[in-house]
Amino acid sequence: MLSQMLKGKLHMAKVTQAELWYDGSCAIDADLVALAGLREFEQIDIYNVNNGERFHTYIILAEPGSGTISMNGAAARKVQVGDRVIIATYGHYSEAELLNYKPKLVYLDENNRVERTTNTIPMQVA
After folding, report:
1. 107 an active-site residue?
2. Is residue 58 annotated as a catalytic residue, yes or no?
3. Angle at 40 between CA 44 and CA 33, to 5 degrees
4. Can you tell me the distance from the alpha carbon of 6 to that of 61, in angstroms, rounded to the nearest whole number?
C-alpha cells in the first residue's frame, strides 16, 4: 500500500501576476521550485488564503530569482494579484520510503523571498 503525503510546499507565496490568456498553469520562480523539491509540469494544489479558493494546475518555470508567482489561464480567475497562496504537491510513498520521509517546506515573505525552510510543522496545541 502507498500513502499519499505532502511532498513540498511554498507557504504564503504572494501572487505577482494573473494572466488569463496565457497557457493555463502557474509560473513559479525556478529557484523556489528547486528549493521546495518541485518539478516543472508537476501537478500542484493551490490554496488561496485570501478567498478560500482551492484548485489544481501545474508548474511552469519563471525566471530564477524573480520571485514570480503567476496564475495563468483559468487559474487567473481564482486569484487577485497580491493574494497570499499556499502551493503544495503530494507524492505516493511506500512504507519503506516513509521511514526516511521528510517534506520540503519553504516559508516566504511578502516579496516571495525565503524566510526559512524546514521539514516539520510544530504540533498545534489548543
Report:
1. no
2. yes
3. 75
4. 21
Catalytic pick among 3, 22, 47, 58 = 58
Cell of 108: 516566504
Span 9-52, pLDDT tens digits: 999 999 999 999 998 799 999 999 999 999 999 999 999 999 99
Question: How far is 73 from 58, CA to CA, in rounded Å?
Answer: 11
What values do phi and psi take at 123, rounded to 5? -65, 135
pLDDT tens digit string along 91-120? Answer: 999 999 999 999 999 999 999 999 999 999
- Cα distance between residue 97 and residue 112, in whole Å: 31
Cell, residue 99: 521511514
**Closest-CA residue to 62 (of 112, 7, 6, 20):** 112
